[in-house]
Amino acid sequence: MRIPLTWLREFAAVPADASAEDVMAELVKVGLEEEAVHRPSDELSGPIVVGQVLSLVKEPQSNGKTINWCQVRVVPEGAAQTLEGEGISPDGVQGIVCGAHNFVEGDKVIVTLPGAVLPGDFHISPRKTYGHVSAGMIASSRELGIGQDHDGIVVLSRLGLDPELGTSVYELLGLHDQAAEINVTPDRGYAFSIRGIAREYAHATGTEFTDPASLPVVVPADGQGYPVRIEDAAPIHGKPGADRFVARLVRDIDPSVPTPQWMVSRLRLAGIRSISLPVDISNYVMWELGQPLHFYDADKLQGPIVVRRTSAGEQLTTLDEKTRTLDAEDLLITDDSGPIGIAGVMGGASTEVGGQTRNILIEAAHFEEVSIGRSRRRHKLPSEASKRFERGVDWRVADIAAQRAVDLLVELAGGVADAHGTDVGTEPTAPLIELTADYPVRRVGIDFSQEQIVKALQDVGATVQTTEGGYLVTPPSWRPDLETKDDLSEEIARLVGYDQIPSVLPVAPPGRGLTRVQQQRRRLLQAFADSGLVEVLSYPFVSKASNQTFGPAAQPAGSAVEDIEVASIKLANPLSEEFGYLRTSVLPGLLEVAKRNISRGFRDLQLFESGSVFLPGEVMGTSSIPPLGERPSDEVLDALFDGVPEQPFHLAAVLVGADLAGRAWDWADALDLASLAGEVLGVDVVIGQGQHRAFHPGRTAQLGLRDGSVIGVAGELHPKLVAELDLPARTVAVEFNADALFAAAADVIVAKPLSTFPIATQDVALVVPLEVSAGELLEVLRSGAGELLEDVALFDDYRGTGIPEGRKSLAFGLRFRADDRTLTAEEASAAREAAVAAAAEAFGAVLR
Q: How far is CA 736 from CA 280, 289, 743, in A?
């Protein structure tokens, strides 16, 4: 919202020497956000004056162009030239070359003399061109930075101006004015007007405010005005789409009258392009009072105006010349011909005010916020009117805004106002808010006095009635956002001053820090980062096909993984239909990050990501939402939580290419990362043979815990998937449920003491059936060897000559150590034999 300062000064006591920065500094005190300063004179300097074309000679050029060699007087005839400098003629007549052809001899124009500087740091100086020395420039609005018209130069008489020669254009066009631009939050629609900003400035400075909406309206609404009916058969949220419609008729305007320069200058500085006098008047009143208006060519109307919802199959050609199919929820302005406008959004082309319009019907209505907002979004038709209606417009200002528009049409366009007007609708019931005396104190943290509370609410415009325990408050009509005691408390704090709110930091209770899970999460993520992996973050939105490919992690051995249907949660309003589901695995987003980096030339990557995945249960969501303003019962809360999907915390990593030594990553590196997670948290991660549709059939490990639960998967990605994603061959990955690790971890990890006694190492190679996994055999060896076994690791998997068909040889290295003595060879061998015996009993293993 741009606020020209000369306009603001009409209703607020803004000092004459105050700048836009000064005004914004005051408005910030009452919670408005500053955006920018607009000052046309910042890009203009030097002599820019009114001149008159004395002569004009057209000279065709060899390049096909025709230029005008002009003599232009820039001082009154007989007056002395007061300007000095190179190229300025002492007699006040400048020779100027001009390529535009929209002016004639005798026209008054804008002349930039030598020494002037135009936007873009364009310096004007005498220069030889087309065989003449051109001492200045006859300027267009675009060259002056005050408009986009570059079809010709500015002819002042066509703007309704007849200034004296030599007059400074800065004063003539209001170029010394400046505007402060602020950001208006959605709940403060009243600030989309000079009226609202002037009131806020008065609040901030404690100065006087003159309400432009206090003017009386004396035209009777006695049923003799233009006929209007409100027939809303489908109100939204029980509220009618329109609850007031004011119509006024002005006849016999002169459509050729230009908009006065003072209005053009203010609208331009406010960011609005001047179009025609009627359109400019409607914009001017909207900016001044915050009430959007719409003007109809009264001669094009057919019968009474009816405000109603859309009927089946209706269409409307709007002012932008687009034919729109209307929705049943759209609120329309209609006459006997059908729709003539989408209420509060945009009018129809059939009743548009144009260059031949003589009679104008003015509409000033009050529409329901939700209805206008939905129509605006549905038809993608943002407008200054809908911006205000969506945020709430003052119900009481409609007749005043209509009268203001009537007065301007009569004064500026020579129109004649009808003696009767139309005002139909029902005034909404103002809310009565009960505010206890101590509530603002408890809510804000300031010990407000009764005087401060009452004064702040009255300054806002509310009616305050003091009761025994507090106050009964009726908000003003221009503040539809004030509905609760919290809203009132915020207004009290805002007007007393946000700077008065004490800054009190909460004191953390002694003895508390990070929770157990928070500590574990930090430890786990730090371990992965310390291992050289780079943490990344991706969106949790994926395609259904990605969920089908990457989830779930737990897939039973021997099952047909391609037949497992993965349940997914579909988003109601996705950012993209391609990614319309919540992820069940972290890997899809992580692989997209890897793919993007590879496409940019990075070949060796170590990436990891952590985050929630979303696993739907039997119940999703809830059929009803509990009402606002009261705590739901425990049963209702339980039902709501039952509909929330399970959201375990997962960690995944992807290794692409090679490590720093040039060794290509393989499936064993993925297993090392899984083992690292277990070591950091003090949990034994059980690694077994697994399968997963996203992983290589023979190079996939299943990650589990001692209790048999499956928590993840690791290994080499499937060759088809790698080719589909355009990733390097042998890309490896790991993903696991970190929450399951946290739950299995001990509260305190106790480090084992380091033994000073030597290790006894023995190897064993066992021949077992192919279906026995190395992980299963390793666990049996571990349990059979007893407490002397410190570690056991697989170092060979052989299937070839010398091994019977259907069997394989697995070789393990066993490390034995005692805490109190050096083991003898006999003790180590006995432990080894016990491990082999356990394997023979469990799997029929035989020594190789």
A: 65, 61, 13
CA-wise closest residue to 767 among 740, 817, 802: 802
Same domain, 690 and 598: yes
| pLDDT on residue 559 | 47
Q: What is the mean pLDDT of residues 166-172?
A: 89
Rounded Cα distance, 722 and 272, in Å:
56
Tokens 């390049």 correspond to 63
pLDDT band at 147 (very low <50, low <70, confident <90, very high): confident
* Virtual torsion, Cα 295, 296, 297, 301, nearest 10 deg: -170
- Calculated CA dihedral for residues 393, 394, 397, 401, nearest 10 degrees: -20
d(CA 110, CA 140): 8
User: Could you tell me what percent of the chain has a pLDDT over 90?
Assistant: 62
Whose structure tokens read 């018209």? 149
Sole residue written with tokens 């500590």: 519
Residue whose entry in the numeric block shows the structure tokens 């989408």: 342
Same domain, 685 and 561: yes
Q: Are residues 691 and 769 in the same domain?
A: no
Q: Structural domain of residue 740, as residue ranges? A: 516-613+648-744
Q: Would you state the pLDDT for residue 797?
A: 86
What are the start-end ranges of the H helices in 426-470? Answer: 439-444, 450-460
Residue 556 binned pLDDT confidence (cut-offs 50, 70, 90): very low
> Residue 339: what pLDDT?
95
Question: What does DSSP say about strands 305-309 and 228-231: parallel, antiparallel, or unpaired?
Answer: parallel
Question: Which phi and psi angles does 197 have, rounded to 5°?
Answer: -70, -40
Counted domains in the chain: 6
Place of tokens 């080894």: 832
Q: Give the pLDDT score at 233.
A: 67
Query: Taking residues 167-182, what's their average pLDDT?
Result: 89
Helix (H), strand (E), coil (C) string for 778-837: HHHHHHHHCCCEEEEEEEEEECCCCCCCCEEEEEEEEEECCCCCCCCHHHHHHHHHHHHH
For 556-564, the CB contacts below 8 A with 24+ separation are 557/689, 557/690, 557/691, 557/702, 559/691, 561/691, 561/692, 561/693, 562/693, 564/693
CATH of the domain at 842: 3.30.70.380
Instruction: Specify whether the CB–CB gap between 179 and 20 falls below 8 A.
Output: yes
Residue 143: helix, strand or coil by DSSP? helix
**DSSP-based three-state secondary structure for 660:** coil
Give the integer Cα–Cα distance in Å for 674 and 688: 12
Contact 285, 402 (CB under 8 A): no
Domain boundary among 425, 450, 471: 425
Q: How many Å apart are CA 614 and CA 625, to the nearest integer?
A: 22
Q: What is the pLDDT of residue 150?
A: 56
Has residue 753 been placed in a domain?
Answer: no
**Dihedral angle sign, alpha carbons of residues 72, 76, 80, 86:** negative
CB contact at 8 A, 642 and 686: no
> Rounded distance, CA 159 to CA 595, Å?
61
pTM over 0.70: no
Residues 658-672 as b/e (b if ≥16 CB within 10 A, e otherwise) read eeeeeeebebebbbe
| Partners of 168 in the β-ladder | 49
CA distance 719 to 731: 9
Q: At what angle do helices 398-413 and 277-289 cross, to 10 degrees?
A: 140
| pLDDT, tens only, 333-342 | 999 999 999 9
- Note whether residue 481 is domain-resident: yes
Q: pLDDT for 233-289, tens place per residue?
A: 667 767 889 999 999 999 999 998 999 989 999 999 999 988 999 999 999 999 999
Separation CA 385–CA 393 (nearest Å): 10
SS3 state of residue 353? coil
pLDDT at residue number 627: 77
Kindly tell me if the per-residue pLDDT of 64 is higher than 90: no
| pLDDT at residue 558 is higher than 60 | no
